[in-house]
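tool_call: predict_structure(chain=1)
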Amino acid sequence: MKAKSLFMCLLLALLTACSNNTELVLEPEVQNSVKGTETRDADDGTYWWLWSKSQKIHFTYLDTKAWIYYHPSNKEVIIQKLAERGLELEWEYEYSLGYNPDIYTNKGENAYFYAECVWNEVSASYKNIIDIPEILDACPNIQFEKGADKECNGTSAIYINTISNEVLQEIAEEYKVHIVGTRDDETTKISFVICDKNSKGNAFEIARDLWEKNHIGAEPALGNSILPC
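tool_result:
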């Protein structure tokens, strides 16, 4: 399971197919949503936009397991508060979010804090644990409807197909997400943002919204690389 490094393990595989940067200014109005509820499209299926293939990926949320992230200084408090609810962290060792802010441009003001944060899982609905103050965000795991017989980790992070600091700042303001930074080198031109409890939706919802309303390519940065065929 230690191979499940969250974001960097998917970065090159996901983005070698991305050839251009969509630098569009966000529309002024963003639909407000309650986290975890507004993910239905016209054909009544949840999805995010997979920009490299321009297709909808259908999945269902799981009520039995949640992805969480937190600062490691709060781990013992989280363990205690979960135990009071008859719950525990799934993994003995938490996993780093995988960021190295020193290699990024457009670094957000809290980039180094998020570089220290870690993620784990809890076998419970995210709604039953998101109220714990030390848990910075919780997102349900998902089950793909086609092409994969295995559940996939949830996430609170999003890849965004832009290197524009202006666009990132507008996204951060509209969706209440935190900028980590931009990878802009010969092979990778992509930015990362992180959701928290106050964001306007979870990573799946925001990634979908960025494409549908603004035609900006975005994908949730899943901790498990299994995707439907």
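agent: Strands lie at 46-50, 55-70, 95-96, 118-122, 137-144, 151-152, 157-160, 178-184, 189-194, 218-220. Proceeding to next step.
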